[in-house]
Amino acid sequence: MNKPVTVSEEALAAPVPVPDVTPGLAAKGAIGAAAAGPAYVVLAGISFSHFLNDTMQSLIASVYPILKDAYALDYGQIGMITLAFQFTASLLQPLVGHFTDKKAQPFSLAIGMGFTFFGLLLLSIAGSYGIILIAASLVGLGSAVFHPESARIARLASGGRYGFAQSIFQLGGSFGTSMGPVLAALIVVPFGQPSIAWFSSIAFLAIVILWRIGVWYQPQIATKKTAVVERHPDAPDARRVKIALLVLVALLFSKQLYVSSLSSYYIFYLIDKFGVSTQAAQLYLFIFLAANAAGAFFGGPLGDRYGRKYIIWFSILGALPFTLALPYAGLFGSAVLSVIIGLILSSATSSIIVFAQELMPHRFGMISGVFFGVAFGIGGLGAAVLGKLADHTGIAFVYHVCAFLPALGLLAVFLPKMPRHAR
C-alpha cells in the first residue's frame, strides 16, 4: 500500500504557490496539479536556457589553449581562471538560494544572465591576465544567480516527477557544456579571441527566454502565510539528515573533481600523450561531455523508478574500473572509456540533487544553491590544485591520481532509505 503523501511534498509538485515560496497551499489543489502532470513547455524552456547558459560557461575552458599560447600561461594560471569563474558561482549560489527561499524573484534569472552577457564581451577584448580573471568571474556570477531559482522552477513544473524534471533540466546544462569545445573548435580557434563576442548573442537569447519564464512564474508567487507543514512519518531524523547531507557532499566531491580533471585538462592530456591537434582534442572532449549529457538525462527517471540511493551507488562506484583503466589506454581506448565514464558518472547528478532536496524540502533554494555551489567550488578548487600538480609532475600523473576518486562511492552505504511517495 502506498504511503500517504504529505502536504509539503504535494505542494512542491503543483504549478501553484509552493511551501518554500508560499506556505499554506491547500492539499486539494496540489493533488489536482500533480495529476495534471509536468508543465512540459516550462521544462523545455528552463532546460534550453540551461543549455545556453552552460554552453557559454564551457566556452571558457574550451579556449584555454588559445589563452595559454596568447598570454604564455602555465597550468597553474589556467587553473586560476577556472577558480575565478567557479569561486563566484559556488560562493554566491547558497546565498541566492537562501534569499529566494524567503522572497522569490521571478525575473532574477534574466537579470543574472546579463552578467554572463557582459562577461563574454569583456573576455573577447581582454588584453591582460587580470581582465581575463574578471571576465570569468562575471560569467560565474551569472551562473550563481541562474541555478538555484531555475532548479526551483524545474521542480515546480515537474508534476511530481522530480527526478524526471531534474534530468530534463540537467540535460540542457550537460548538452550545453558539451557544445563549448565544438563551438570553440569551429569559431574561436579559426577567428581568435575577439570571436568570443559573438557568443554574447546566445546570452541575449537566454535573457529573452528567461524573462518569459519569469512572466509564467510570477503568478505562482503569493503572499506568505503561516502554515504547519507535516513531516512524513518515515522521514529520517535530524541527525541522519545531517549525516546524509555530508555523504552527498562527499559523493559530489568525488564525481565533480574527476569531471573537472577531464573538462579542464583532457585537451592537454591528449595533446601531450598522443600528439593530436588542438581542434581534434576539443572534439574528443566533446565526445566525453556529450556522454555526460546522456547520462544526466537517464539518471533522474531511473532514480524515480528504482530509488535514488541505488542509482547513486551505481553511478559513482560503477565508474571506478573504467577510471582506473583510462591512464593505460591508447587514443581510441581513451575515447571509448571517456564515453563510458561520462555516461555512468553523470547519472548521479539528478539523484544527488533531488535526494538532498527531499532531505530538506523547506530549504529548497538554499539546498539547491549549496549543492550547485559545491559542484562549482569543487570544480574550481580542483582545477587549480590539479593544475599545480600537473606543473610539477606532468599531466599524465594527474589522471593516475584522479582514477581512484570514484572509490568514495562506498560512502553511499550511509545514505538513509527515503519514503516512497504516492505517484
Automatic annotation (TrEMBL):
Residue spans crossing the bilayer: 30-52, 72-92, 129-147, 168-189, 195-215, 243-268, 280-298, 310-329, 335-355, 367-390, 396-415
Pfam families (alphabetical): MFS_1
Start and end residues of each Major facilitator superfamily (MFS) profile domain: 42-421
Entry GO CC: plasma membrane
Keyword Nuclease among record annotations: no
Superkingdom to which the source organism belongs: Bacteria
Gene Ontology molecular functions: transmembrane transporter activity
Keyword Metal-binding: no
UniProt keyword terms in alphabetical order: Membrane, Transmembrane, Transmembrane helix
Name of the protein in its database record: MFS transporter, FSR family, fosmidomycin resistance protein
Species per Swiss-Prot/TrEMBL record: Bradyrhizobium lablabi
